[in-house]
Sequence to fold (338 residues):
Amino acid sequence: MIIVMNSGATDEQIGGVVSKIQSFGLDANVSRGMERTVIGALGDERTLDPEMFNSLGGVEYSMHVVKQYKIVSRESHKHDSIINIGGTLLGGAKVQVIGGPCSVETQEQMDVAAQHVSDTGCKLMRGGAFKPRTSPYTFQGNGEEGLRMFRKAADKYNLRIVTELMDARMLDTFMKYDVDVIQIGTRSMQNFELLKEVGRINKPVILKRGMSATISEWLMAAEYIAAGGNHNIIFCERGIRTFETAYRNVMDVTCIPVLKKETHMPVIVDPSHAGGKTWMVPALARAAIAAGADGLLVEMHPNPCEAWCDADQALNPQEFASLMGSLRGIAEVIGRSL
Ligand code: PEP
Ligand code: MN
Fold:
């Protein structure tokens, strides 16, 4: 942290800043220039906040000099982290596609979906048992019964399951059904108590980007999980809100290279919730892989017209299989496989 004093700052004001720094157990380095005095806080500055200094007399401004995220940063860990999901690796040379319906509806729907996911060569399946719906009057998910149906269908085809956790009180139930990957949805990205809870376990976590979150806020949210001891974090871009109304969200392709530079954790993309329409999904999916995403989260339903949730954006099994074919070519061009 550096604190820049204004040109008229008195010795007393400089002393005030120095003692504030020292009260947090850090050392202060005072550098007196011709026009300004700059004070550096030496030590772990992450416990300090610019707000602590900006209101002190004689302070012009203050700012951090190191990144606020530590464990998830590329600075602390140079190589790509590969997440092991029950033997399936995410983040390595192989691009992983997680397919499945928006929500778990019936046993039959899940059985048929699991068969298609498996037939296309995917090892990971998605499906929500607890649904964060905009209206409290629409289908909220089948809850624990949904987890049971999902587990049963997935086990038949040896698939690993990805499902959203909205409430920390359900964590034991998620453990009971041996959920392989816990998804934290866009609406929960800054639910810090929930993040701390999933930080205490060692299950892989997909952390979706808040629909209005900056990359830095997203990285800090991941740091909450990592700080608890769980380093199995996968970032998922799912589209952000902008002024554009022609589609559901803007898939921020730019965040892919930025995140790959800032963090060693894998980055996946959800083109379904970005575009919001089935016909957009293949183009967005291909763009994400071409830009370096480590995987995709794609909604696929055995019969999209009948889907209880997000029917407009679900691929049918044939569309899903054909998307997988076209992604294979892109993955190869950039030296990866699918
Ligand atoms: C989902 O993946 O089913 C979902 C609700 O996504 P998001 O949190 O990105 O809206
Ligand atoms: Mn959905």
